[in-house]
Amino acid sequence: GEDVEQSLFLSVREGDSSVINCTYTDSSSTYLYWYKQEPGAGLQLLTYIFSNMDMKQDQRLTVLLNKKDKHLSLRIADTQTGDSAIYFCAEPPNSGYALNFGKGTSLLVTP
Amino acid sequence: DGGITQSPKYLFRKEGQNVTLSCEQNLNHDAMYWYRQDPGQGLRLIYYSQIVNDFQKGDIAEGYSVSREKKESFPLTVTSAQKNPTAFYLCASSMSGADTQYFGPGTRLTVL
Known about the structure:
The structure holds two protein chains of two kinds. Chain A is mostly beta strands.
C-alpha cells in the first residue's frame, strides 16, 4: 500500500522556525495528526487538524493542510532545544484499524 | 491519573527465552495496539485488538503472541521464534479502531 512520507532529518538553529513536511495517502481522511517522540519515550499527541480546516494554530505550532496535494506541514516558531525530537505524521487508516504513521522526522535544534 | 503504563522500562533476555511485556490502560478504551520501533524504520504494527477477547495480526506478527482477557490489559509475549527481538516496544490505545491513539512510555528489550 501507499506510505505516509516524511523527510527523515531536519536541523535548525535555536530561535529559528522549523517546518516539518508530510505527504499523506487518503484524500478522504477526516483528520490528520502530529505526534512528538522525545528520546527514550513514547509518542505524545502534539496536535491534530480536521480535514475541513486549512490551518490550525496553537501557541508556537502552526499546522497547514493542503488537501489538493495531500500535504501536511508542522511549523514550530522560535524553535528551542527542547523541541529536539522525532515528529510523526499520521492519518486514519483507509483499511485496517490502526493509524497509518510516517517514518518520522528527527528534528535537531542546535544552540 | 489516567493513562497507559508499560512495564518494565528496560528488559534483558537471553536467547531462546520467552518474555512478556505488560501494557495496562485506565482510559476505558476498547482498542489496544502493539508496535515495534527500530532506528530509522518508524513504527511497525505487531498486533491490535478492537475489543476484549479479540485480536488481529498486524504487519510483523511472526514470533509474537498476545492476549486480551481484560479490557484494561494487552500483554505481548516475545517468543524464542522471533529472530531479532532487540527493539523498543510501544503500546497504544484508542476509544475505538482508527480513533486517536495514546501511547505508553515504551519498553526497551535487549537480547543478550
